[in-house]
Specification:
992 residues, mainly alpha, Serine Threonine Protein Phosphatase 5, Tetratricopeptide repeat, three-stranded mixed beta sheet, 5 strands, elongated
Length: 992
């Protein structure tokens, strides 16, 4: 029968007759698992004979076919049990004693050799041990002693000798030969006897209790000392021939039979010979349990049982011959089946191959398909790990933490508050929205909506006044948020508005339009974002096409009727096109709907100032003060009007000082803004000390206030304090909203420090950034003069003098109202007498001429007139000197202006400034026709002269208003900051 280990599923063979009615206990040699084998068991066991039945000894029979060499396998049973007289099984004393597997917790550990040897079945029976043989049959077999032939137990091939160890043997036991083939198993482990095992006696070897089956566990006992062994196998088991060779006697077969059996290995068999022993009187038989290859060919190192295996006898000693290559012994049954030509064996092989292929396919499906899908499902079920916070976000919130030390609420609450404030479309609301979105981002570093809202509020609230650091920080945050959330409509709109805040930078308008177009291309974008996109497109097209811009604004109104900024930017588009009447009308309608709309109020006041209607601008702010008494912004705006538009700096100083008395009631930024305007008013009034003091107070409130740094810088420039100027230059660099102006002021610092090359480089950069900056060209000539480069200085001054490229009536573009206030000639302050020093003799009038040119543009007309008179006194043919004297006379309403202009044209008729002076003088004298002819001739030689075009349009307003409007709109298109043209256009609108 076959038995399968209940723990490791290893399969073994056992003779049915050796199983008693109560069963036997079997120990697996692989996992040491004990289990009960009964007749009533299932496939794991088969029926055995009744307890105490002794199976008849099986005589070895030769195989029917040609003998095959026996397949060696390790014996499993203990033959010593055969020598034990059979005793009736005693009733168990306790439940623990009757346990099938015993108490595993009490199983002894492997230690020194004990009283029970699980491999005792491999030695001689106990009856022979009493004859003087050692208890361990594998102890140091001596090849010098020829074994006696015995049919009871054929010997195996001897193994190499091992060191002997003392052992106690029974003196009365007859000696039997050992099986030297199994010496490699080593000594038996200790403590393997069952609980009911009797103590060993000197008269017999150690053996397991009756009814137990040993599964051949490898012994760890020390070898016994070498003792003489009795002869065995004196006759060949095949042919009966006498065996004289000790080796043949040990094998039990002669050399001829051994060669014959090796030549015809048709089947694997195990030859089992009964051993002469006294019949047992009781107890169960011990059997060998060979491993079944068909069940578990890899479960142990033993060979599979072949078809011809014989049942084990009561003596159960197994004689087997191991081939030399024992590691490949498991392949013997397959070879036998193939060579035997058996159909059943071939079908079995095919079945095994089919099972192997199916098993491999199943394993492949499990590991390649099922398991990855299962792991993917597990990963999908788990919540996604939070993405890493971009370093740009960490850097920004690190700077913001000090502003919000005690945060309350959740990120969602602050985000909702910021969006509500942003929807108000008011300047103060934009500032509050910035803080709300900052707090939302501090509470949730992964919130892309908080970043989009913050950038939107920053762009709309600060606009062109945004400093470079904030602009760069906002761009980095947008890029980081795009990396986290993708190009969402909110991020795209915020980025576009941010770029429009720096619309003068190359490429920003085009990039903003592209981002807006991308929003419109997203079908899932909300109408609010699409309206914002149309608004961005309209703002980007105002300068190029008023019609297209208005179309975009109309589309935005349809999508979002409550979007207040549409009317605001639509009014700015009308202003850009020179339609100031329409622009002001739209702004008034907006203020009627929302009287608190500060942006519309500020824009309307600015337009009134630019078109020369300062009184109307004042009335707007006064009405605001009546409606909201104590409005600090309206009071500050009125003071700014006084010193920037009305020229009343002293009154502005008084009003601003009144506001500073209550500075503690305002916020730090409002207080700093008041002190900055006070510094500008004091400087305009000529009080440089008061300006410096006010600037210091502004910086005390807000150390990074750029307006205060600018005013203190201009004071240092006038005082020629290079170190102080350099210190405050850093405070407003990148924040003036005018890169060309910044280059001019930076060049002034280099000029003060004596770095002529550095100064000239900055002045050249300013001209490249804005070709209207004539002050940069003049300063470049001054720098050359300071280095005593006479010819280079005169070469640089002459284009300015003739006015072919630059307009002599405007030094540089400047806003009508500004946070960064500069008087018209402030960039030229402090360069007096530098050019004049180039003259080394009285008759050298060129240095005087160009010095007069510098003074003329500084606004010092009196000094300029004196220097020009000196030039004319020496050289009456100086057309440039005569022309500039005529312009000074026109400014002072002098009667000699026309005579001076006619002399200039008479001396140098091709000089543009001479023709301009004559045309202006003729127009002042009422000679409209002559003035128009002269001005047109000036435009023929200097097409970019805006003052000539504006004067010509003014002369056409009465007779040809449409033609005049066309000329004026052209001027405003070339330079939106040319206020004389704006004034005329507004008058045309007023006339209808």
């Amino acid at each position: 029968m076959r038995i399968v280990c209940q723990k490791c599923a290893a399969a073994y063979a056992i003779d049915d007759r050796l199983i008693t009615t109560k069963g036997v206990r079997a120990q697996c040699p692989r996992c040491r698992h004990l289990q009960l084998v009964k007749r009533e068991a299932s496939a794991a066991s088969v029926t055995a004979p009744a307890e105490g039945a002794v199976p008849p000894a099986a005589e070895p029979k030769p195989p029917a076919a040609a003998p095959a060499p026996p397949v060696a396998r390790e014996p499993r049973s203990n033959p010593a049990a055969a020598a034990k007289p059979p005793e009736p099984l005693a009733a168990p004393k306790s439940a623990a004693k009757s346990d099938l597997f015993g108490d595993f917790g009490e199983m002894p550990e492997l230690g020194p050799p004990g009283s029970v040897d699980p491999f005792a079945d491999l030695g001689p029976p106990a009856s022979q041990v009493s004859r003087g043989l050692p208890a361990d049959p594998f102890a140091n077999p001596g090849p010098s002693v020829p074994p006696a032939a015995s049919k009871a137990a054929p010997a195996a091939r001897p193994a190499p000798p091992v060191p002997a160890a003392p052992a106690v043997a029974a003196p009365a036991t007859p000696a039997v030969p050992e099986d030297p083939l199994l010496d490699f198993l080593g000594p038996a482990p200790a403590g393997l006897e069952p609980e009911a095992a009797p103590a060993p006696t000197p008269g017999r070897g150690s053996s397991p209790p009756a009814g137990a089956v040993s599964l051949g566990r490898m012994s760890a006992r020390a070898p016994a000392p070498v003792v003489p062994k009795a002869e065995t196998h004196k006759n060949c088991r095949s042919c009966g021939k006498d065996l004289t060779d000790p080796f043949d006697q040990a094998l039990g077969i002669c050399e001829a039979c051994k060669q014959r059996e090796s030549a015809f290995p048709r089947e694997s068999s195990v030859v089992v010979a009964p051993e002469a022993a006294p019949p047992p009187t009781g107890g169960g038989a011990l059997v060998d349990l060979p491993v079944m290859s068909g069940l578990d060919g890899t479960s142990s190192g033993d060979e599979p049982l072949s078809e011809g295996a014989t049942a084990l006898a009561l003596d159960s000693r197994v004689s087997s011959v191991k081939p030399a290559r024992t590691s490949h012994i498991t392949a013997a049954p397959v070879r036998s089946a193939q060579r035997g030509g058996s159909g059943g064996s071939r079908a079995g092989v095919f079945g095994l191959l089919t099972l192997a292929v199916l098993g491999a396919g199943g394993a492949g499906y499990y590991f390649l398909v099922h398991k990855p899908q299962q792991e993917q499902r597990i990963r999908d079920a788990q919540p996604p790990a939070p993405a890493a916070v971009p370093p740009e976000v960490l850097a920004a919130v690190g700077r913001w933490k000090l502003q919000f030390l005690e945060l309350e609420g959740t990120s969602a609450e602050h985000l909702a508050a910021g969006q509500k404030q942003l929807a108000m479309d008011q300047r103060i609301a934009y500032t509050e929205a910035e803080e709300s979105f900052q707090q939302a981002l501090l509470l949730d570093l992964h919130s892309a909506d908080a970043i989009a809202g913050y950038v939107q509020a920053l762009a709309l609230g600060r606009g062109p006044g945004m400093d470079d650091n904030s602009f760069q920080e906002a761009r980095e945050l947008i890029q980081a948020a795009t990396g986290m959330a993708g190009e969402t409509p909110a991020l795209l709109v915020a980025h576009a508005n941010l770029l429009l805040a720096r619309s003068r930078q190359a490429g920003n308008l085009e990039e903003a339009a592209r981002l807006a177009t991308e929003v419109l291309s997203q079908p899932k974008a909300a109408d609010a974002y699409k309206a914002e996109a149309h608004l961005v497109l309209g703002r980007s097209q105002v300068a190029t096409s008023r019609e297209l811009a208005n179309q975009e604004f109309d589309a935005a109104r349809k999508l979002a009727p409550n979007l207040q900024r549409v009317d605001y930017y639509s009014a700015l588009a009308h202003e850009q096109a020179g339609q100031y009447g329409l622009a002001l009308k739209q702004l008034r309608q907006r203020m009627e709907l929302d009287p608190q709309d500060w942006n519309s109020l500020e824009a309307a006041a600015r337009i009134y100032v630019e078109v020369g209607e300062t009184a109307r601008a004042r009335k707007l702010y006064e009405d605001r003060l009546k409606a909201k008494a104590g409005d600090v912004r309206a009071s500050l705006a009125l003071a700014v009007l006084r010193y920037q538009a009305e020229g009343n700096a002293r009154e502005a100083v008084r009003a601003l000082k009144d506001l500073t008395k209550n500075a503690s009631r305002y916020g730090p930024r409002d207080a700093s803004e008041i002190f900055s305007h006070l510094a500008a008013a004091e400087r305009t009034a000529g009080n440089d000390a008061g300006a410096a003091s006010a600037a210091a107070a502004a910086l005390k409130a807000v150390p990074a206030m750029p307006e205060a740094h600018l005013q203190w810088f201009l004071v240092a420039l006038a005082q020629k304090d290079a170190a102080l100027a350099r210190e405050h230059l850093k405070g407003f660099q990148g924040r003036l909203q005018d890169a060309a102006l910044e280059k001019v002021l930076e060049g002034r610092v280099h000029l003060l420090e004596g770095d002529v090359a550095g100064a000239q480089e900055r002045f050249q950069q300013a001209v490249r950034l804005d070709d209207r900056r004539m002050d940069a060209k003049l300063l470049e000539g001054v720098a050359a003069a300071s280095a005593k480069k006479r010819d280079e200085a005169f070469r640089l001054f002459y284009p300015v003098l003739e006015a072919r490229v630059w307009d002599p009536l405007r030094l540089a573009p400047r806003p009508a109202l500004s946070r960064f206030w500069l008087r018209p000639g402030d960039t030229l302050v402090g360069v007096e007498n530098v050019v004049k020093s180039l003259g080394d003799r009285a008759e050298d009038v060129q240095p005087l001429l160009y010095e007069a040119l510098v003074r003329f543009h500084q606004g010092d007309r009196q000094t300029a007139e004196r220097l020009l008179s000196s030039v004319v006194d020496v050289n009456a043919n100086s057309g440039g000197a005569q022309a500039y004297r005529a312009l000074i006379a026109l400014d002072t309403k002098g009667p000699q202006a026309r005579n001076l202009a006619e002399r200039a044209v008479g001396v140098e008729r091709g000089l543009p400034v001479a023709r301009l002076s004559l045309g202006l003088a003729q127009a002042s004298a009422g000679d409209v026709a002559g003035a128009m002819r002269t001005l047109q001739s000036a435009l023929d030689v200097a097409p970019k002269m805006l003052s000539a075009q504006t004067k010509l349009a003014e002369l056409l307003v009465t007779s040809k208003p449409q033609e005049a409007r066309a000329v004026l709109e052209k001027v405003v298109g070339l330079d939106p900051s040319y206020f004389p043209a704006k004034k005329l256009l507004f008058k045309l609108d007023e006339r209808g």
